[in-house]
Amino acid sequence: MVIVLTNDDGIDAPGIQALQKAVNGKGVLIAPQDHLSGCGHQVTTVQPIQVCRRSDTEYAIAGTPADCTRLALTHLCPNVSWVLSGINAGGNLGVDVYISGTVAAVREAAMHGVPGIAISHWIKRPLVVDWDVAARWTARVLADLLHRPIEPGSFWNVNLPHLEAGLPDPPIVFCQPSTQPLPVNYRVEGNDYYYVGEYAARDRAPKTDVDVCFSGNIAVTQIRL
Question: What pLDDT was estimated at residue 205?
Answer without folding.
Answer: 94
